[in-house]
Amino acid sequence: MDKISSIRGMPDVFESDTNYLAELNETLSKIFLSHNLNEVNTPILEQTELFIRSTGVTSDIVNKEIYSFNDRNEQSLSLRPEGTAGVVRSIIQKKLDTAEHKLWYQGPMFRYERPQKGRFRQFNQAGVELLGFEEGSSDLEIISIVCDIFIELELENSVLRINHLGDKDTKEKFLSELLKYLKTYKGELSDNDKEKLNKNPLRLLDSKDADLKDFLDKGPKIIDFLSSEQLNLLDKIQSVFGKYVEIELDSSLVRGLDYYTGLVFEAVSSNLGAQDSFLGGGRYDELSKDLGGKEMPAIGFAIGLERLNLIKKKKNIKSNKVISFVTTSSKMNALAFKIAQLLRSHNYDVRLETNFTDASLKAKLRKASKLGAKFVFIMGEEEFESDTITVKSFDEDGYQVNMSVDEILDFYKDI
Ligand code: HAM
After folding, report:
1. Cβ atoms of residues 283 and 84 within 8 Å
2. Residue nearest to atom 15 of ligand 1 (CA)
3. Candidate of 42, 59, 82, 271 to mutate for ligand 1, largest count of ligand atoms within 8 Å of Cβ
4. 301 with 142: CB under 8 angstroms?
5. What 8-state DSSP symbol labels residue 188?
6. Which of 364, 368, 373 is CA-nearest to residue 415?
7. Distance between CA atoms of 296 and 286, rounded to whole angstroms?
8. Quick one: CA torsion of 140, 144, 147, 149, rounded to 10 degrees?
9. pLDDT tens for each residue of 335-366
């Protein structure tokens, strides 16, 4: 019979990566908690309309990447491509859109993109959303959370790029100048870029086309249209956080989702390949209203866990706290299982491997060594009769001691 394989871009994740993802989640949740954020879980499936109205009809996500299907009731549903829309939808639905909320979440997201290093069709994000906060100190707070992630995870070779997209007025003024400037270039645009020009010309700024980039470099810059408060915010971010992380002002940074309004930012690492951005975010003051809610200014970001994993992988050292517990005869197994259970409950950081098979002691020791065990706990005839266990160290000193069950529990606690 034909074998069934997983869907392209949705890889199975095995131990070295699952361990690391769990570790990352733990560190991130510690940081989020220290900023007094509350965790929220929204569904993986939402109505397609939610993503059309949030990420925008002109975004790549809605145009090319969204996984949508009709359910049995002919309702169009989509796998979430990102977390912000669901969180805002949920706050509006609960009629909590007049209060302030500081939230974080983590979980799988889905985008039909061409898979490559660091780019998957199912991937995990951890995200933060500060809802109900106007531009000002919340922008600094969000950057301070990003900074804590950089510091706590010791992210090297990473840069935080920032830009400001202005408010509605600045955006309009800038866009009219940009469109005037682009008139002479219109004929040379690709079909894809022509469509962007018609639907959302701002998206042209992050074009990968080298000629267009050159042309735009010489054109109007959004920074020249910003108010003194908006410029001040960019200055402040650099002066307050520039000591801790490398921050670059990048006037071509617009981000791929339509809901952004003010500050936008993206973190990139030279440890990654072409997909060098591992964190992205910004302000989205209009999103609540676009989704039928009240005025609720907000700012947030999300970090891609697989990309973080790629940056940090070299430091991913598997815990060497592996212990193999072996018996020499099956009559000991009932007692040995009880002791193993007791041991585990004394220290969940240790990986206790039990080997109570009929293999020889020699074979069991060989297997333990292959597993990278630090110690082997042996229950042989003598130990069974005297209610003890022999601890054999696999370190260079290779010592061996006999311990009572109480002694071994104490020993195990401190491994
Ligand atoms: P985003 O920039 O689209 O923003 O995604 C954030 C991060 O998710 C990226 O920096 C990247 O690390 C990861 N990511 C995106 N697509 C993929 C993929 N195909 N494979 C692997 N990783 C990927 C958002 O999603 C916004 N919701 C962020 C936000 C929150 N803005 C405001 N609040």
Report:
1. no
2. 304
3. 82
4. yes
5. G
6. 373
7. 7
8. -140
9. 999 999 999 999 988 999 999 999 999 999 99
